[in-house]
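Q: I'm writing up a methods section and want to include an example of the input and output format. Could you take the sequence below and give the corresponding predicted structure tokens, formatted cleanly so I can copy it straight into the document?
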Amino acid sequence: MEERVKVLNRDVIKYFAMFTMLLNHIANVFLAPGTALYDIFLNLGYFTAVTMCYFLVEGYGYTRSKEKYARRLLIFAVISQVPYSMAFAEEGFMEFRGFNMIATLFLCYLMILALDEIKKPSLRGGIVTGIMILSIFCDWAVLAPVFTLLFVRAQDVWEEKRNAYIKAAILFGIVTFLGGMGRIPAGRNLFQVFAGMSGIALSGVVILGYYNGRQMRRGRIFSKWFFYVFYPLHLLVIGIIRVTA
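A: Here is the clean output for your methods example:
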């Protein structure tokens, strides 16, 4: 695609990802399943996780301190756990429903680190497998680590990144279909499969077609911390509204 249409920088895409995540969480907590608004908000939100996995891989290559990056993810994973447990509790004030998405990204980051630093194939493979298993207790279980692995292997080759997005969308569709079998009507299940895959595909279109590989020229420090703070803050607000409404 021509360079003149690559008009979106990294921060703009991340802001959009935060917005779609907010819509998804509003749908999950407050909206009735099966309504048009629920479907729109829910499926737009699937843009976020795969996008953040993409930027996690890219950020690993850019960061000046891999240790500080990992520490920052771990700290905000801990900070986010109570708001996450408040927001998604089915009843009561708070309920443990797994670990939050930043915890998942922390595991994904450890996986990238293992792939990069560990030379022994058997040890490297064992650690990656272990991380996949640990992610079962997190948001976007297994899927986020697989997305991350796909982007790591794609490196900076456009065709490989396109293929990674195709595989990610197909995998998400399969998981969604299997999760809906026996629980919802077949037609509704297929709708959810393709609607959910469209959120993954939208990320691919935006990243591969319009991302220029740059950050904002101004406000970089604000943007950097906004993306960390917004996650627990919006969950806390949702949790408070859920409990008090």
